[in-house]
User: Fold this.
Amino acid sequence: MRQFILILMMTISINSICQDYAVPDGFVWTDKEEYLYISKDKEDAIQKCMQAFSMYSSIDVETIKVYEDSKVPIFWYSLDKDVRNKAMIFYCIKYRDGYDVVVKQIKNKDTYLFSVEENNGEVIDLFYAKQ
Assistant:
């Protein structure tokens, strides 16, 4: 029984270290070390992304541009003013028959996220360059 409790406590400790930032209900932690929310509805996905962003920024989310006609209607970031070179990345992307909303924490490194081909054929590379 002691071994079971020890293993349980170690698992809880490891999970709490890996998942060290808050997100709204409905997000799940993935093996890509990011939080993911999946929605069949674009408006729901945009609202969920705005909700997550508002947890990390004092910026009024209603004033931020949403690209309704894009396969990536939202791509925002929020810098941590207390920790240099740490950012939270928020994006909503069309994926298969729905939308994925991703919240990812990046620390002190340039990070390539993905490329997407827009409806007009233009390819966009999305990445975070450390500040």
Notes: Residues 24-128 form one domain.
